[in-house]
Design a protein that fits this description.
Layout lengths: L3 H42 L2 H34 L2 H35 L6 H30 L4 E4 L4 E4 L2 H5 L2 H32 L3 H36 L1 H8 L11 E8 L4 E8 L2 H7 L9 H27 L4 H10 L3 H5 L13 H10 L4 H31 L6 H9 L3 H15 L4 E3 L3 E2 L9 H32 L16
Antiparallel strand pairs: 1-2, 3-4, 5-6
Helix pairs in contact: 1-2, 1-4, 1-6, 1-16, 1-17, 2-3, 2-17, 3-4, 4-6, 6-7, 6-15, 6-16, 7-8, 7-14, 8-14, 10-11, 10-13, 14-16
């Protein structure tokens, strides 16, 4: 059995790396399409202002992209270094979308970004615009294939376990590609990135307007960001509802934890707007409920029930008992693959194999399994409710706060008086961190809510780790956190430096960067 400390440190290291990486990803995804919009207006109108906007915001995009690539490469290496058994067990499936991402998206994205920066004086206007569009396509294709891989971890379709190779094997590539969970996660995540890019431009433009400098440049940038951000935040909310529906279909445990639903309610279930979850007694000490809403979100119907945590645990206990049969039959097949009785027994219980493997956290010999140990494994199948409940609500609250901000920004942009609304400009400036917080919290909900699985219902987390020493993990964790903190400080320094310089750093002579009287 693997030590719990080793598993926790491996999880913490990957979580820290992923959360640092995702500080850079949303801005890359969102900024690139804003560059497409700005350069398209430049090509259509020929106005130098829009070329300057594309080049200036593109400079900030480039800084962020470089650091995003640096942190992202480390993540893929960790599958081999820290999660070796995971890589062995599901590598035939999980590795395919990651390989396609590198071949199809990353090389396209990296090539086009070089042409974007160095092709202004070497390419015609339409040619350079095509480069910018391809750069945006590459960035979003990269996100697509990575989220297909992640979506398979959440909802492992198109694959089955082979007792011959003793690992998961792909049976339907297109089922993996068109996995509903992956597709919902992709559109929701990239929309959140678009909001991040729009907020970045809106906030910095607001700062220029508050300072009274580069006013025309800031006004045009603010207007584009307001329109793009409003459309994007609407998409996030709508597609977030779709993502919630797919979670209800594939991961009822996660949905129940997010909503602190302990009991199975008559359909349609109510939505807990605010609650105080009591995990020890499996109830809410206090709750403000909105009737019907959860049933509509989770099932898109008025007559389908959403199972509560207590019912889910009982069903999971049955699957664990069935999984014991699968594991014992698999052990017999490992000794003799021609054992027909073991094969038939395994085929009858193989869908519950992952639940049986949960017991390996407590015993290596299944003859020692007791009802108390089964109950421990059953309780492990539900993540802690309070962190899930409040993290989800924080994400939703930030989403609606940004909807209000972008709605007002767009309204006053249409009226043409936003530059005079200093309260709105200050609000936009102070809201700069909001999309990053929402994105990080959203990833926490998605990944923590999948526990105790690396592959939901298939491979428990405690079986996925590499055989490493705890001292090695402490050392590498400290190294990663230290190095990534330095990278984050470098990015923030460069971003602040060039943002303060403003479009005057382009050297066109059209901007003085001095406050207007």
């Amino acid at each position: 059995m693997v030590s719990e400390q080793l598993v926790d440190l491996s999880r913490l290291q990957f979580a820290a790396t992923a959360l640092y990486h995702f500080l850079f990803v949303p801005l890359t995804i969102g900024m690139v399409w804003m560059l497409v919009i700005m350069e398209s207006v430049y090509v259509m109108t020929g106005k130098p202002l829009y070329k300057d906007m594309t080049r200036f915001w593109g400079k900030l995009f480039g800084i962020n992209f470089a650091l995003g690539v640096t942190t992202g490469i480390t993540l893929e290496f960790q599958f081999g270094t820290n999660w070796a058994y995971y890589s062995h067990y599901v590598g035939d499936i999980f590795g395919a979308p990651l390989a396609i991402e590198g071949l199809m998206a990353f090389f396209l994205e990296s090539t086009m970004i070089g042409l974007f920066f160095f092709g202004w004086d070497r390419l015609a206007r339409k040619q350079h615009l095509l480069v910018t569009v391809l750069m945006a396509v590459g960035t979003n294709l990269s996100a697509l294939w990575i989220l297909i891989a992640n979506g398979w971890m959440q909802n492992p379709v198109g694959a089955e376990f082979s007792y011959v190779t003793m690992r998961m094997e792909m049976t339907d590539f297109w089922a993996v590609v068109f996995n509903p969970d992956a597709q919902a996660k992709f559109v929701h995540t990239v929309s959140a990135g678009y909001v991040t890019g729009a907020m970045f431009v809106l906030s910095i433009s607001s700062w220029y307007l508050l300072k009274g400098r580069d006013v025309e440049f800031a006004r045009r940038s603010f207007g584009i960001a307001a329109a793009f951000g409003f459309a994007s935040v609407c998409s996030v909310i709508v597609l977030g509802d779709e993502s919630g529906y797919t979670v209800g279909e594939a991961q009822q445990t996660k949905l129940a934890a997010m909503e602190a639903m302990w009991e199975t309610e008559p359909a349609p279930a109510s939505f807990n707007l605010v609650a105080i979850p009591n995990e020890a007694e499996m109830k809410n000490d206090f709750a403000i409920e909105i009737p019907w809403v959860m049933g509509l979100i989770g099932t898109r119907s008025l007559d389908k029930q959403i199972p509560g945590i207590k019912e889910i645990k009982l069903k999971n206990r049955e699957r664990i008992v069935s999984g014991i049969e699968a594991v014992t039959a698999l052990d017999a097949l490992r000794r003799n693959q021609n054992d027909e009785a073991a094969r038939l027994k395994f085929e009858a219980h193989k869908t519950d194999l992952g639940f049986g493997l949960l017991l390996k956290k407590y015993v290596s010999d299944f003859s020692q399994v007791t009802p108390a140990i089964i109950d421990k494994a059953m309780n492990d199948t539900v993540p802690r409710v309070a962190p899930m409940f409040w993290s989800f609500r924080l994400m939703v609250a930030l989403g609606f706060a940004m909807l209000l901000l972008f709605g007002l920004a767009l309204w006053h942009s249409v009226k043409g008086d936003f530059a005079d609304k200093r309260w709105l400009l200050r609000w936009a400036l102070l809201s700069l961190p909001m999309p990053w917080i929402a994105c990080e919290v959203g990833w926490f909900v998605a990944e923590y809510g999948r526990q105790p699985w690396t592959i939901y219902g298939v491979l428990p987390t405690h079986l996925s780790v590499s055989t490493l020493s705890v001292d090695n993990l402490y050392g590498s964790l400290a190294g990663f956190v230290g190095f990534y903190t330095v990278l984050l400080i470098v990015e923030m320094y460069l971003m602040v430096k060039f943002a303060k310089q403003g479009p005057g750093s382009l050297g066109t002579g059209r901007y003085t960067n001095e406050a207007h009287a």
